[in-house]
Amino acid sequence: MALFANRYRTHDLGLLLLRVGIGVMFTLHGYPKLTGGVEAWTQIGGTMKLVGINFAPAFWGFLAAAAEAVGGQLLAIGLFFRVACVFLLGTMIMATIMHLSSGDNFNAYSHALESAILFLSLAFIGPGRYSVDQLLFPAPRRLY
C-alpha cells in the first residue's frame, strides 16, 4: 500500500514544517522573557542554583530567554541549527529540573521534558535540505 511505503521523499518538507512551527512557538514564548529586563532574567536565572551555580543569575536568565527567543528564530530558518538546539536543550533541561524540584506533577513539567527530547533528537537529525545552513554549509558530495 502506497501510504505505508518507506520512500521518505517528504522528509525535508516535514523537517521544515517542524522547524518553523516549533521555532515560532519558542520565539513567542521567549520574547516576553527577553524583553522582561534584569528582574525577569534574575528570576529565571535563579534556577541555576538547583545545579550548584550560584553566580550571575541575570546572565543565566538572559541566556535562557535568548535561547528561546533567538534560538527559536534560528531553528525556524535553519541557521546555526545544531547550536540553537543545544542551547534550547539546556534551557529545557533546566526548566524540567525546576519543575521537578518544585514538586510539580507530570502535567507541569511534561512540556519542558518533551521539548528537551525534541531538541536532542533534532540536534542529531539536522535541519534538512530547506534550511539556511544547507545554503551556507552544503554537505560535501559523495563520490560513489
N- and C-termini, Cα separation: 32 Å
How is the biggest beta sheet arranged?
Answer: none
Measured by DSSP, the beta-strand proportion falls in: under 5%
Low-confidence stretches: none
Q: Could you say which structural class the secondary elements and strand pairing correspond to?
A: mainly alpha
How large is the count of helical segments? 6
Radius of gyration: 17 Å
Query: Helix coverage percent of residues?
Result: 55-70%
| Cα shape | elongated
Number of structurally distinct domains: 1
**What do the pLDDT scores average to?**
93
Secondary-structure element pattern, one letter each: HHHHHH
For the secondary structure, the number of strands is 0
Description:
With 144 residues, the chain is mainly α. It has one domain. It has six helices and no strands. The chain has helices at residues 11-34, 37-45, 57-77, 81-101, 106-125, 132-136. The chain is elongated, with a radius of gyration of 17 Å.
Short recap of the structure:
With 144 residues, the chain is mainly alpha-helical.
Topology at a glance:
Elements (H helix, E strand, L loop, with lengths): L10 H24 L2 H9 L11 H21 L3 H21 L4 H20 L6 H5 L8
Helix pairs in contact: 1-3, 2-3, 3-4, 4-5
Which labels suit this protein?
144 residues; mainly alpha; 69% helix
